[in-house]
């Protein structure tokens, strides 16, 4: 139930990003609402886990470093071109990143609740693919506090 609730919350966030985010993020001047900053901070912190576990990669912090470099380069370009650090190019980059992040994580949480994916919810898409194709997928325990729930659940289902 916790995964389903988190998934639906993230999918609602995706809806709000798609509906209101472009207008609020792409206009000059930093985002007007503090919730954007919180969502960006959490998204940046969790990005390596979402990418690495979700795509079965071991890139460690490289997704985070790549995003930080892209954000920094965009800020520099904004200052040169627009005379301010937050301008439409940075807003567009942040918007695309938050759309990806909330869609991937929210979809994975929701799908893992529906499919009863063992282990980390970020393995839900590979789990679905394995079920469709008749293949196998690796189980991965989640980092952080959710790991305890995964291990308990694994004991229930064997």
Relative helix content: over 70%
Point out poorly predicted stretches: none
Q: How many DSSP helices?
A: 6
The description of the largest β-sheet is:
none
- Write the element-wise H/E pattern from the N-terminal end onward: HHHHHH
Strand content: under 5%
Count of DSSP strands:
0
The coarse overall form would be elongated
Number of domains: 1
> Which structural category fits the helices and strands?
mainly alpha
Radius of gyration: 18 Å
Separation, N- and C-terminal Cα atoms: 19 Å
What's the mean pLDDT score?
88
Please characterize this protein's 3D structure.
It is a single chain. It contains six helices and no strands. By secondary structure, it is mainly α. The chain has one domain. The radius of gyration is 18 Å and the shape is elongated.
Topology:
Layout: H1 2-25, H2 34-54, H3 62-82, H4 88-115, H5 124-133, H6 146-157
Helix pairs in contact: 1-4, 2-3, 2-4, 3-4, 4-5
In a few lines, what is going on in this structure?
The protein has 158 residues and is an all-alpha fold. Helix content is 73%, strand content 0%. Helix 2 crosses helix 4 and helix 4 packs across helix 5.
List descriptors.
158 residues; mainly alpha
